[in-house]
Amino acid sequence: MVDAPDEIPLPPEPDDDHGWEPPPEEHPVGDLAPAPAAVASSDPHEVLRRVFGYDAFRGDQQAIVEHVTGGGDALVLMPTGGGKSLCYQVPALARSGTGVVISPLIALMQDQVDALRALGVRAGFLNSTQDADERRLTEQEFLAGELDLLYLAPERLRVESCVRLLERGRVALFAIDEAHCVAQWGHDFRPDYLLLSELPKRWPDVPRVALTATATDATRTEIAQRLELTGARHFVASFDRPNIQYRIVPKGEERKRLLEFLRTEHPGDAGIVYCLSRKSVEQTAEFLSAQGVRALPYHARLDAAVRRENQARFLREDGLVMVATIAFGMGIDKPDVRFVAHLDLPKSIEGYYQETGRAGRDGEPSTAWLAYGLPDVVQQRKMIDDSEGDAAHKRRLAAHLDAMLALCETTECRRAQLLRYFGQDLGTERCGNCDTCLTPASSWDGTVAAQKVLSAVWRLKNERRQSFGAVHLIDILLGKRTPKVEQFSHDELSVFGIGSDLSEPQWRGVIRQLVARRLLAVSGAYSSLEFTDASPAVMRGEQPLTLRTEPERTARAARSRSRGGSGAKTAVELSAAAAPVFERLRAWRATAAKEQGVPAYVIFHDATLREIASRSPADRAALGTISGIGEGKLTRYGDQVLEVVHGGDT
Ligand code: ADP
Ligand code: ZN
């Protein structure tokens, strides 16, 4: 039992990893062909079809695009993968002038621009990573009206010459990406975002669209206020991500269980494994690598060059696993991340949802897997106690944690509970694609069990002036004569051995749930269990208690590729004839991506390649009707793709 705690482990050293830090970046100039001529059209549908190769807008996209194209301000809340980019890219192309995109993700600007250029869109960026010549070139293009989109880091707006540059050119709109960075309580706060409230003063007639995947009403209000977007129309999309399967498994040997999960369900897939501390990141990455999984570490203390290299490899190579602290991930728009695993409990549902949302942007089946147990509850509560900040701040952190714990302990549909947290309704009681729906969790009357635990804590305190952690307490309940029991003659307590009706994991589950519900507190260096104000009522049996049944260690939720309920997405299975074509196309894409120095998905998504393989288009006209192939890509890649498809035919 590698991971069975001897005593509840101490929280890790506080890590300063909990904010995103932009790695200083040096970018090679993208190797894509020079930007072709403008794709001017004032009709958003025409732009969507011709440039992006899509037939229809999704969800709120059309309303947003029409509103912004018409000059209106908008605040857009959409989950990761919901399709936020088109909400400003299409209006930028449909309006005259350049769409200016404010983004904190300097390290990813080159990729974003490359992806647009691959579509034939004239895009550029200005940030601190460029040399003077590169910057001048982009500035000239902007002034000459030769840019459709210009990406800017927010700190550029502090530079007066940059503001004057924007004033001399023609701005079609301002898009404020990752708009929650303006919210001061979030861990993504960027002071430079506060500068953005100046935009409407200088450019009163230029529409602004702020976008975020952070969903709570409080954040939304704060964004609207701080960005002076009070007159903006709000668009709040459904936050459901039906293609993500949510699963929460019990902790204990979690690295081994993670490995089993990867081997059985995601062999060769790209994914992210989140850990709380950098030490755990390094150990987990080493463990996975030793077991033959291609895994890379990422945390804020890694050398900047290594971090950059690992991020670039994750984006460009197929099937890598990134083991990371939450320093990794914002703005990573790799569409084919097939799983996000958490080895430690996230601090809030917002964080959990943002992190898991990085899976399956392409809409294909993906898994969110979280290992959760008593050590998490203890650790997180302690981190809050030890954190700096006033009582109100701690209360806020505690409320966030409580909501996260309630999600872990629920016997109801995880998705329904997640959406309810964001003020949304799933529309059905059970989604059919989370662990509690697939293997219904049961509950039991835990009143007596809770009374036994609380009595043991109470007797130790009152008869012995002692308090102990969970492991020893369980030994007492089970009547185990351990050296510690003998040392303190705890076998003489009246509660010794009163718990032989339950197993050790079951007792751990009872204690975990008591701590999660604040019916027990943990304190001190040894994580001793103590009474809270709410404990006496339960101990006296005045308050009945329903507890979640501990799942069997071996039980694994069935992989549900097809699900009933609310609109599951399933990967199209390829026919015997199409499968080898798909593989040929993937190989061609890998070579092309390498030659051009761009991630493979910038060329074509898997879904597009799959459709090409199964429809086997005869000519360019037929190829152009496939979703994800606009004019730019048809011109650039059409002949090559047709040759790969039909190469074996003649
Ligand atoms: P977000 O920024 O909200 O996370 P993206 O803008 O990256 O999401 O879009 C997610 C994926 O969905 C992208 O691969 C994008 O090409 C695709 N997508 C967005 N809108 C549409 C649409 N109307 N039709 C087809 N695919 C779309
Ligand atoms: Zn469900």
UniProtKB/TrEMBL annotation:
Stretches assigned to the Helicase C-terminal domain: 254-405
Annotated HRDC domain residues: 575-650
Residue stretches of biased makeup (Basic and acidic residues): 17-29
Biased composition (Low complexity): 30-42
Residues annotated as transmembrane: none
Origin: domain of life: Bacteria
Keywords (A to Z) from UniProt: ATP-binding, DNA damage, DNA recombination, DNA repair, DNA-binding, Helicase, Hydrolase, Isomerase, Metal-binding, Nucleotide-binding, Zinc
Domain Helicase ATP-binding: 65-233
Entry's EC annotation: 5.6.2.4
Cofactor: Zn(2+); Mg(2+)
Region (Disordered): 1-42
Family stated for the protein in its record: Belongs to the helicase family. RecQ subfamily.
Alphabetical list of NCBIfam families matching this protein: recQ, recQ_fam
Name of the protein in question: DNA helicase RecQ
Organism: Pseudonocardia parietis
